[in-house]
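quick one if you have a minute, typing this from the bus. below you get a single protein, a line of residues and a line of whole numbers that encode the local backbone shape. could you go over both lines and see whether the tokens make sense for that sequence. anything you notice is useful, everything is just below.
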Amino acid sequence: MKYIFTYILVALISAHLSAQPKHDYHWTIGYDTSSSTQVGNVILMDFNSNPVQVQTLQTVERMFSGASNTTMSDTSGNLLFYTSGCYVVNADHKIMDNGDSINTGIILQYYCPDGNSPNISGALAIPWPDSPNLYLLFVLDYESIVFPGETFTTTGASAHLYYNIIDMTKAGGLGAVTQKNQVLIADTLSRNGVKACRHANGRDWWVLVPVPRSNCYYITLISPDGPQSPQLICSGTSWNKYEAEAQAFFTPDNKKFIRFNALNGIHIHDFDNEQGILSNGQVIPTEGFSVNAVGAAASPNSRYLYIGAHNFLFQYDLEAPDIETSRILLLVRDNVPDPFVPSVFSLMALAPDGKIYISSVSSHLSLHIIHRPDCPGLYSLPERRGLPLTSWNYFSVPNLASYRNEPSNTPCDSMIVHTYTPIDGNKQVVLYPNPAYDLVQVLINRPLSSDAHLTLFDQLGRNVLRVELPVGQEHIQFDVASLSPGIYYYVLTSENIAIQNGKLVVGRL
């Protein structure tokens, strides 16, 4: 007789949490894989559901949500628009009224026909303060700028930061771009990237963009009167000319600004979100990191910094006396194709569900996940390929402002949601409960050979446990209480052939 064991413990959600704006509750990633020349598609991640819902939707032709994409939902979490830095797409997945050609020059002429801007974090949308139906969309252009003392440049730079005004009362609620390509900054700017965080008054915004090959940044206050005059602020050590692959962000508490790439290191600044000032710049060296793909994000409690360095995923403690020596290796790239080559650790973003999602630089069909980023070490539960996607993605997570500062109140040695895996008669064996805390039950649905066994591997691919499966038994159990909390992988082997594999989460109550 088969049994179904289901136990769900639902965490209480405070009134404060439910009142927070949901402007980031929809993400668009992925690129056009449609065979039609008239339509395209996009992956939509909807965080109004828990777990996040993932689906592929029909959108405009040749849509490519690359490294420069941003999205906007209203305060209730309804999708309003999204962009890849070339045109604005409305909630009906059509180009918004006057939403074409929101960029200029090289990007408009050479990149937008293929659907996206080449800049990393080169587009960003924020709500207009005190105007519930108005939004600002910032985009960086791209120019082949030759820097002093050089005869050519391989990376170029941006020459303008533009803003576009979107009014959602237009076109029957689908919105329209009412002002387009307004110059906010005309100067040499970094192609990565435009960022924003809340002012200390909780209403206004600060918008920041780096100046290349310097330690300076333009910062602009966004008030109910619109964008104010940009100011130049400088802090810490200058960046060198190798800027192309980089990611930057404000921590959720709006108190630090962090910018990282492998050839410049991790630059950490204190940020005064009342005065708009960076200070106390420091650099964490990253010698030996691959330059091919990078990513960075912070935990909801703003304590832990996560760095994706192509083959490696690291965690740093921003509250440690020595941040550099606090580094912990969480994951290394494995040899599992996704679906053609192994997926690496690249651009990442903190989501409304409190998890960090990580993309790769190859075409891939899943995202890596850090399930509990507020927790130290492997208690953070990093997982390779944890979120299956419904279509192809490449180097893409949305560039978003931080809308909340809600650290987890759940102890790191416990789990928020526990789902005991139902019995599945289609599988050779079923392991439950999952997550497990001490004893794991193994239900054997069909007879196995005399040498059948389960092997349990950790995230580094090390064999941590072997469980024999005796002939003739339909049920056995084994103990995982001695294992560290985290995500493990099991392989069922029979007659020296791997016939089933899966995932087992080990937690602590």
The first helix runs from residue 15 to 18.
